[in-house]
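Page 47, continued from p. 46.
Same chain as before, 808 aa.
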Amino acid sequence: MPLSNANKRVLHDQEKAEEESNRKKRRLSSENNISPLSKKPREFLEESLAMTESQRKANFSAIPSPGSNGISRHASPLTSKTGTTKKLVIKNFKEKPNLPENYQQETWGKLSEAVEAIHKSHAIKSSLEELYQAVENMCSYKMSATLYDQLKQVCENHVKSNLQQFLKETIAYEQFLKKIDHCWQAHCRQMIMIRSIFLFLDRTYVLQNSSIMSIWDMGLDIFRAHIVGHHIVQTRTVDGLLQLIERERNGEAVDRQLLKSLLRMLSDLQIYQDAFERRFLEATDRLYAAEGQQLMQQRDVPEYLLHVEKRLSEESERLLHYLDQSTKKPVITLVEKQLLEQHLSQILQKGLDQLLHENRIADLTRLYTLFSRVRDGLKELCAAFATYIKNTGKVIVLNIDTDPEKDKDMVQLLLDFKAKIDNILSVCFASNEKFINVMKESFEHFINVRQNKPAELIAKYVDSKLRAGNKEATEEELERLLDRIMVIFRFIHGKDVFEAFYKKDLAKRLLVGKSASVDAEKSMLSKLKQECGGGFTQKLEGMFKDMELSKDFMLAFKQHMQNIDAPGGIELTVNILTMGYWPPYPPMEVHLPAEMVKLQDIFQKFYLYKHSGRKLQWQPTLGHCVLKAVFSGGNKELQVSLFQTLCLLLFSEGEEFTFDEVKEHTGIEINELRRTLQSLACGKARVLQKLPKGKDVNDGDKFIFNDEFKHKLFRIKINQIQMKETQEENTSTTERVFHDRQYQVDAAIVRIMKTRKSLSHNLLISELYNQLKFPVKPGDLKKRIESLIDRDYMERDKDNPNQYLYVA
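Result:
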């Protein structure tokens, strides 16, 4: 309902009366110097510490600031009962009010009494609000400088009075430290309370004068100058702290809270580095220098490393609990220097080989972690690691401590050693790239100390794993094993030696059908091709191709045999081999049965009809047969070589033959015949009996068919002579490699000279080393150069004998 004009006028008069009344109350409050605060002292103290200057001026405005000009300071909207909005304006006094007489002396007396009460831990008679207001009033009337000086003098007198208690020499160092700490804690509490009272002074006068310290800093400066700064007090304090820390390092329990408080005191007083840290680091250096020397003599390496790790942990814990963080780097560096850096070589010489040999994973991890903390630590560890690999590898490769007959175990030992080193690199040495590179260099170094032999043995090891009958591993395990072998293969220089022996063994596996898995064979071939290129595996791939073509050709030959009159009871299988792909086999003439000769002629005519212009050369050393034998105990099938077959077939015509008779009938070379008869009469399956008995076959021995032969199996495999590598085969394979190398060297020399036309001896040798993929001596290269000069491929310069010219 709208108000009438009369009602509006009444409300307006009431508002004017209320406003006048409030103005009188505010004026009265200012004149009587009454504080408008109604909060409790603690609440006021907490709030006052966080107030801004504008807030304090709004709350404490009992006495106006001098020089006020009556300009409006604050305006806030007011809403009247009629709904209209008005502004309430507060103005300063136009003239500065006069202070009572002796105001400064009386006010300071009240404040100094409060400060003394705080120093003596007595109750303060005046309220904190009143004291705060008094400080603000004095500051407002330009008494700040005098007030600050008076406060400083009172605080300084109090601190000086506490000095004498610390100069008594009869106090024990721990009791002395507690007294210092108690005095410091009391001083801090007192200065906090004093500052809360003089907060207005601190936030006006002090802030406006950069040359004057804040009240808190003034208190610190006084305490530093008259208590801790005293040379006797400071010396006893630092000595006590060092003794406490030394006791803790020796395993005793100490008051860490006391240490923390006093060290923080030194830090707050800004004398931590000068007074304490320097002496603390000197004591630490002396302690760990002596400890390192002593323990290196008394303890083995694993125990010593555990102790170092423990000491580093302890020092880090001290930093966490009471030492200043600025001490962290120097103190840890000192421990590392005295316990590790000074003894790097001694630790490695004394214990690294043992840790590696025993595969102490935890200790090696600790060693790597600790050595990584110091300068040149990992560098020295890496060098020692390389030395260990080379020395251990040489023992494996050269068989220094073992019988040379144990060469067959070399590759397995190398694989085990490599797996062990790889595990150490991964788990202990964090797969550090420098360590991995050093490992590769070390393996390459020691594995080629014994030239060519590791390559030969790796090829034979692969052969043993790829043969049928090797049931030691599944296909997945065999694949992983081949990968590991390839890692070792990468380190050898004589890869052509590996190729020669691998090709010879692969030929036997393919021809005798003893390959464990075609997939495994092709997987190995793929790995070699990826590692060495297509040229390296070209002949090996050709061998597989020959075997596949032979199978297809034999299908056609069997169909052909069905249409002709052939000897009955014999089934012929032939593998056609390209001579350039397969290892060379020495030709050998033997006396074959007429049936076999007839079958050979039939096959040869069929093959030459299909492929005219080619030449076939039969290799009896590679043949094998399956014979049906009749014994008194039952019929058996004998799986034997062609040479064994020729010997056994004689006993279909007679019961007893001498060595010379067997030789005459078969035509087998004498040494080959001895091994063949030895396998039939002296092995596990003795289908022949030798007279006299013995392991060796001599010229006068007689051989009799063993009719009483028994065996639990129906098909019996008698070890085939051609699967046993003789020393002559080994030597011939090695010689072929050397001859091939000579051809490669000659070709490389001619290729280089044809391109360069003229070249000095040293540059030619350097070019050859860059191109040749096998190890060769300078003397051997010089011989090949002389050979090419003799054959007119190149000549010496007439004016400079050290310069070679290409002859077109």
